[in-house]
Write a structure and sequence with these properties.
- This protein is an alpha/beta fold and 312 residues long.
- It is 51% helix and 18% strand.
- It contains 10 helices and 9 strands.
- Strand 8 and strand 9 form a beta hairpin.
- Helix 5 runs parallel beside helix 8.
- The mean pLDDT is 86.
- It binds uridine-5'-diphosphate and magnesium ion.
- The site of magnesium ion has 5 residues, from loops.
């Protein structure tokens, strides 16, 4: 019997769980030809999520949960899930029912036909601010134009991954994770299906603007060094222009003398060059910061409890 794991990262999802669990039970009971495993990862929730998961585990042994020692963020919570799931394939799904479980049977069909990564692309994105949509579009454009593999737009973490993909993702242990890029990087046989993304059933989105911004920076710095290249090119162009201007000033002074003018142009040049230098330093700094974080080589996450057992 093939085993299907469902991975659900949860951060303060006390209110969503009672709505999600019956949906999943319906799904599991409707497909009894498979063995099922639910893997909830409690990502440092501050509400009753852990108690709810313990309760579910008592009723239903298909429920498994990993309790992380604090909030590590969804990307890391998913990595913990990759390590703990035991299925022949795994479906990653949000706890807030924004990803419809009704799509999972279709994913399984494609998987049975040999596809290893069946991902759901959003036709619509649910309720979101105009600014967030715009910025997300800009971000994908930068990432796409600067990396050598396809980065898929409007594709989230809602997908089915074969055991091969899970093992591949488990090998990628970088600490500042951008999993959406990793799915594309690992390759394997991909299949796209379309769906409409609804709004969350309960609770609030755990992401704030700052977190999304830093996820975007992580996405760019972990998949491409193009910003470094751009700062080299800009530096090159600026110094060429500076050289031409230098010769012009020099010759002008030789022929016509120098009546000491040009305060505005001095200030402009000073500010412009200073700005470019700081920007380039910042870009280099982003990459050095990543090197620093990887060099520390800390564990990606810490587990406090796995299925009623205390993990030391
Ligand atoms: N999540 C998590 N850790 C976090 C933030 C979110 O595990 O630090 C989970 C959350 O419980 C949900 C999923 O990631 O199951 C998606 O989160 P959310 O709905 O807040 O994001 P959005 O749908 O707005 O992208
Ligand atoms: Mg959501």
């Amino acid at each position: 019997m093939k085993k299907i794991s469902i991975l659900i990262p949860c951060h303060n999802e006390e209110q969503s769980l009672p709505l999600l669990y019956p949906e999943l039970v319906k799904l599991m009971d409707g497909h009894a030809a498979y063995e099922w495993e639910l893997m909830f990862v409690n990502d440092g929730s501050t509400d009753g999520t852990l108690q709810a998961l313990r309760q579910l585990r008592r009723q239903d042994k298909r429920v498994n949960y990993v309790d992380l020692s604090r909030n590590f963020g969804k990307e890391t919570a998913m990595l913990a899930g990759f390590d703990y799931v035991t299925g022949d394939c795994m479906v990653i799904i949000d706890a807030d029912l924004q990803d419809p479980p009704e799509l999972i049977p279709e994913m399984l069909q494609w998987w049975e036909q040999g596809y290893e990564d069946v991902y759901a692309r959003r036709k619509t994105r649910g309720r979101e601010s105009w600014l967030r949509k715009r910025l997300s579009l800009l971000f994908y454009r930068i990432l796409q134009s600067s990396s050598r593999f396809d980065v898929l737009q409007n594709v989230g973490d809602f997908r089915l991954l074969d055991r091969r993909c899970i093992n591949a993702l488990k090998k990628m242990r970088e600490s500042e994770r951008y999993t959406k890029g990793m799915y594309c990087w690992i390759g394997f046989k991909k299949k796209e299906i379309l769906f409409d993304r609804g709004d969350r059933v309960a609770g609030n989105s755990s992401w704030n603007f700052r977190q999304l911004f830093s996820l975007a920076i992580d996405g760019i710095t972990s998949f491409t060094t193009v910003p470094l290249r751009v700062s080299t090119i800009v530096g090159f162009i600026v110094s060429m222009l500076a050289f031409v201007y230098m010769i012009y000033v020099f010759i002008k002074a030789l022929i016509w003398g120098d009546p000491v003018q040009g305060y505005p142009s001095l200030v402009i040049l000073l500010l412009f060059l200073g700005g470019i230098q700081l920007l380039s330093l910042g870009i280099i700094g982003e990459y050095i910061g990543r090197i620093y974080n990887e060099a520390k080589n800390r564990p990606d996450y810490l587990v406090r409890e796995f299925n009623d057992e205390n993990v030391l």
